[in-house]
Amino acid sequence: MDPFIAALRNPVCYPHPVQVVEVLETHISWVLLAGEYAYKVKKPVRLPFLDFSTLEARQRFCEEELRLNRRTAPALYLDVVPIVQAPRGPVLAAPGKLYAPAALLDYAVKMRRFADGALAETLARRGALGPVHTDAIARTIAQFHASLPCTAASDTFGTAAQVSGPALGNFDQIGALPAAAGAGDRLAPLRAWTAQECERLAAVFEARRDAGFVRECHGDLHLGNIAFIDGRPTPFDCIEFDPALRWIDVMSEVAFVVMDLHAHRLGGLAWRLLNAWLESSGDYEGMSVFRFYLVYRAMVRAKVALLRGDAAGFDAYLALAASLARHGRAALLAMHGFSGAGKTTVAQALLERIGALRVRSDVERKRLHGLAASARSASALDAGLYAAAASERTYARLAECAAGAVRAGYPVIADAAFLRRGERDRFRDVAAGLGAQFLIVSCEAGDAALRQRIAARAAQARDASEAELPVLERQLASRQKLAPDEAAVTVRVNTESDASLRLGVESVAQRLGLAQRQAALAAAAP
Predict the structure, then answer these.
(1) Three-class secondary structure of residue 41 per DSSP
(2) So what's the pLDDT on residue 382?
(3) If pLDDT is split at 50, 70 and 90, which confidence band does 314 have?
(4) d(CA 414, CA 398)
(5) Pick the CATH number of 331-391+401-512 from 3.20.20.190, 3.40.50.300, 3.30.70.260, 3.30.43.10
(6) pLDDT per residue over 86-96, tens digit each?
(7) What is the pLDDT, as a whole number, of residue 520?
(8) Residue 80 host element (H or E)
(9) What is the spatial distance between Cα 358 and Cα 385, in angstroms, rounded to a whole number?
(10) Superfamily of domain 120-325
(11) Which DSSP letter does residue 375 get?
């Protein structure tokens, strides 16, 4: 151990009660766990991607780390503390105490410690990470991204060259490592795919940059850098040493978390988190670059595994990257059913089961009017958000989002009532024009169950849907059966019991042949 750090393991070095000091080490820093606090000390190293070789640089980057991480974790990141020479050896400077400049040895970022089991990664490994966690992570990321500044026009962040350089550079760096000898046959197809995507998406990268999607993000957002503190997800330890690694497309950031969930064999939660983030952000257009970033993030992890001497991890991340690079089956599903029939519940189970994107009419309708999904519009029947013109705009928005995602190679679930034949035909035509399989998923329950669900939902007032009993009664009074020619593309799902719902979801998965795709992704995970 470095003598300087060994000296700081003495509990008397700290201006607060400490019994034992533990040391965690990475290739660029030491973290000293001392009592209720943690102190991060940067190593005096110069590497191809950072330079901490001078005291001035370490101070500057400690201050930058504090500034950046206070955006997401202000309760964790407390201060930058000098480490000074005292008669008994190096000590962490006490607050308010003055020291001679000659006594200054280094700097540390002072952080509040959290429980060992608080990391999302720890929860994932224990099998304790669930839907509530991933929904909260998605909301937190979306709110964080919405608060961030966009890159300036004079900067090069997010340009096609800036995106493709690191992605292709990964392969050069991996190939230069002796441990990668013999992996050429597996690396070559992925490098060729990455190069092809860099060229194909160059204009898209530039357009997203111009549209404001390149922002000063976290940069290293995976499950190991998210802690649940007081029940809330808290991203921490963002990248401070290279602006180019954090001034990125927000889709690159989301892709890292989603890829990490796949790597932990939590594919259903990966799709759940992605969909929750999309519903919060509305950035369905970003799915055009999402697969590229998924593969990029998997390849970064493959490189890190190799640098750490983890040959098995390297092989597994290569396999995961290859699996993530493949397009899913082109499919467009239209949910169908009365208010309260369980369409959104079935769609949620489906997207996790088959790996799909969902666009919800209840969410997009409000987005078009500048409202949050949970907001109440107080619109009367056939008025306001639910007037005929507003409904037409809503279905047009759903069709636009769905078509873009299908083109990008994702199965899509359009979650709306689709009670009118014209609405269903519109989406059937979209699917036909894209060469995608079309399926109607008709959710069914008895009238009494529908009324009971609507009343309960209205009382809770938490769902994006505002449909209440008058809406349902009108639907029931004017009900029409699906046309005979639609029967061949319809799967009926009885939602009156959990067992029948699960059976219906499995029927859809088998009908589309997408259950195998999810299994293949899980098999490829590390």
Answers:
(1) strand
(2) 61
(3) very high
(4) 7
(5) 3.40.50.300
(6) 888 899 998 77
(7) 59
(8) strand 77-86
(9) 21
(10) Aminoglycoside phosphotransferase (APH), C-terminal lobe (3.90.1200.10)
(11) -
